[in-house]
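Re: the request from the purification team.
They wanted to know what the chain is likely to look like in 3D before they choose a buffer screen. I agreed to run a prediction and write the result into the notebook, where they can find it.
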Amino acid sequence: MSENTDSTARLRTDAAVRLSDADREAVADRIRAAAAEGRLTLEEADERQQAAYAAKVEADLTPLTADLPAPPPPTPGLRTLSPDARRRLMVHAGIGLAVVLLVLVRWIAGPVSFFWPAGPIFWIVVSIAAHYWFATRTTSACEWR
């Protein structure tokens, strides 16, 4: 790339970036919440939502929420799993389910009358629950390699 193209890309502001459907929906949610709180009339909310869904770039959305209070900060500690962390958790759960099925088949086929698979099943469930808990509570847990 030429130096001119690099400087042009660096000078581009966020206001010129095209919007995603999620961006439009987030602004529409803020407008709906403001209408539900009584900050906007139904007509104002309807006009602003139409403009939000028609917006192409960030600069189109800014005036729609400029006179509304800022949204509350996200609740700390409640994080979603990244696609990679979700995949690892599903692999862990799949292996755990396979082991549970194997242990149950062995118990059914064996002559033991008491339910001995309860112990292994309990620890498999605990390990999957702990995996999920750590993956959603810490950022480093989502980056295991």
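For the purification team: The chain has a mean pLDDT of 83.
Please add any questions underneath this entry.
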